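[job 4471] stage=fold_predict status=RUNNING
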Amino acid sequence: MRRLLLALALLLLLPGLARAEPQFEVLVVAAPSTYHYEYIPVARDSLEQLARLHGFGLTWSKDGAPLDGALERYATILFLNTPADSFTPSQRGGLERYMAGGGNAVIVHRAAIVPAGVWPWYEKLIGRSFVNHPMIQTGVVTVLDKGFPAAFGLPDRWLWSDEFYVTANPFDIAIHRVLGVDETSYDPTRIWPGQVGHRMGKDHPLAWYRRHGRSRVFVTLLGHEAVMYRDDRYLQHLLGGIYWTATGKGEQR
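[job 4471] inference complete, writing structure tokens
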């Protein structure tokens, strides 16, 4: 009987032991801001489910404090709607050292905004600088690179409602476009009184990737509303960016 109980105990332990070692570790920095805070519990629940399903570790932070510490164990850092200009000088330095050492980053929506000249290094890391955005509207998002993991499973053209950020390229940085938006499908000039809406034309990227020295960077400008973090298409889009930055794998040549 004792041997039988021991065998049953080992059988119960084995599945847990098999899952004990994550494929890689992800740090999520999700700091609330004036217009981005309701998404946090929704995104956390969805991302933790993705982590369990796909076997990677997830560390969640409500601010940039972890950037002051050791970051080497993280395969990638996910900046989820975090206002990066709120980081302290030491936290900025921590991120710069992490990336210089071969670290990787996923930049989501609000995290792509820093005021011009406040942190040029970060603007260059992203590869584009924020100009402004129209009101939330429904538009046609287009897949520009079917061979990149953040586009796997997405239709060539699909309806999405978001703030379609307008960006500029003052530092003349090359990016690999993954998603774009068809400006004929919404009104880029529909904006708040006192502001001027801008058109970007046919070249209006919404998601892209690039290499920054030894590092990998994925940027998606989608992700304003909390309910988006329950949308399977959007979560697969995020997962693809996380997977590629963390592993460097999955691109179809």
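[job 4471] summary: The chain has a mean pLDDT of 91.
[job 4471] exit 0
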